[in-house]
Amino acid sequence: MKITLPKKVAFIIEQLEQNGFPAYAVGGCVRDSLLGQTPADWDITTSANPQEIKGVFPRTVDTGIAHGTVTVLLEGESFEVTTYRIDGQYEDGRHPKAVVFVDQLAEDLRRRDFTINAMAYHMHHGLVDLFGGRKDLTEGIIRCVGNPKERFTEDALRMMRAVRFSAQLGFVIEPETKAAISHCVEQLSKISKERISTELVKLLISPHPEEMQTLYETGISKLLFPWFDVMMETEQRNNRYHCYTVGGHSLAAVKHISAKPHLRLTMLLHDVGKPNCRTVDNEGRDHFRGHPEISAVMAKEILRGLKMDNDTVDTVSTLVLWHDDEPPLTPAAVRRAIHRIGERHFPDLFLVKRADNAGKSDYGQKEKLAYIENYERLYEEIIAKNQCLNLKDLAVSGADLIAMGMKPGKEIGETLEYLLEQVLEHPEENEKERLLGMLP
Ligand code: CTP
């Protein structure tokens, strides 16, 4: 199997070797190349220690000297070059207490997480595949190198990585590896929220986000995302609009939206509050009144807890809050909805509504879809006409009111809001003279 190494990668390997240090491309870049994909980055493993690596290349950055990693800079590109190592004891399940550098590629590969990630490649020596990585890649299997419990104890995040890789590649997790996840799951409590949420997002934006189901089956979500387990265990099938549990519906909805983090997170969380507001009517049907409001509050807390950035928290919780909002389909009502929800959340909101609808039973689907399409058409007409939808587009400003003799303060804000309401109802009124004429 031939892999074409980028010129700069081959150059780094050659330079190291000319100085007496064997070196190989390793890990994800070899996996991706064998899959016929273009690797996002190329990592190199070598017998040289960090000082020796720095001696070979003029421009380097000390990325993780303690762990043997030096970044080599070549004409604006950067490559991580890491010393072969065997990891000593792990203190927090992640960082090795002592890193012993060993002059052996095999020892390095033995400590990597999965067989598909434990292959090395050299332009002259070819593929080094000591653990059946290529076979697992062909057969679609995520399997730990050696003893899975040892691999997960070295770095508990690997349990989430197993699920994430299976979702990205459409692979199955080998049974012994999967059983070891259930066995070691508690160790994930030591992992930082930032690392967890990076993996969650990678899983969600993968081609198989429904692998969230595996987080549930292995007990990972019980520990990290307990709200997801509650969703998976909340029935709503005795409501004719639904054919899945709340969790099942949410995963179906996730699959029906494009693979952007904020959209996938919105679909995952859009009904998270449902279990908290479930009522059953006299005919035994489930209802979830007020669930968008509760879901929005919970989504905010959950995303903050996962240390997501403020923009993601705001955007997702806003889309969750309004996912079920159905204004009457008149131009004025749609203008008011755009103002209420915020123009920046359109047209995402339509994607959310469509995905929500697609994850439901066939009952009422057509009517809902027709509603969304008409809503969208009205929205597009309003945008095309460039109509005023917020204070910044109003023909009257606070300065105009002050010039008229109004005192700066609350009254100005209230007056502007009043005028905006008039304009949302009658866009043709958005002229300074006409608006000022409306005031007492
Ligand atoms: N690795 C590991 N255990 C981890 C993280 C990484 O053994 N917890 C090893 C694997 O050999 C992996 C390589 O380090 O292939 C590079 O790690 P990383 O860049 O995180 O992952 P990739 O495999 O490149 O995949 P991705 O970039 O999608 O995370």
Question: What would your notes on this structure say?
Answer:
- A seven-stranded mixed beta sheet has the order 3-4-5-2-1-8-9. Strands 6-7 form a two-stranded antiparallel sheet. Strands 10-11 form a two-stranded parallel ribbon.
- It has 22 helices and 13 strands.
- The model is unreliable at 89-103 (pLDDT under 50).
- The chain has helices spanning 7-18, 28-34, 50-56, 105-110, 133-139, 148-154, 157-169, 175-184, 193-204, 212-218, 220-224, 226-232, 246-255, 261-269, 291-305, 310-322, 331-341, 348-358, 365-384, 398-403, 410-425, 432-437; strands spanning 23-26, 43-46, 60-64, 69-74, 77-83, 85-87, 99-101, 120-122, 126-128, 141-142, 172-173, 279-280, 286-287.
- The structure holds cytidine-5'-triphosphate.
Fold topology:
Blueprint: H1 7-18, E1 23-26, H2 28-34, E2 43-46, H3 50-56, E3 60-64, E4 69-74, E5 77-83, E6 85-87, E7 99-101, H4 105-110, E8 120-122, E9 126-128, H5 133-139, E10 141-142, H6 148-154, H7 157-169, E11 172-173, H8 175-184, H9 193-204, H10 212-218, H11 220-224, H12 226-232, H13 246-255, H14 261-269, E12 279-280, E13 286-287, H15 291-305, H16 310-322, H17 331-341, H18 348-358, H19 365-384, H20 398-403, H21 410-425, H22 432-437
Parallel strand pairs: 2-5, 10-11
Antiparallel strand pairs: 1-2, 1-8, 3-4, 4-5, 6-7, 8-9, 12-13
Helix pairs in contact: 6-8, 7-9, 13-14, 13-18, 14-16, 15-16, 17-19, 18-19
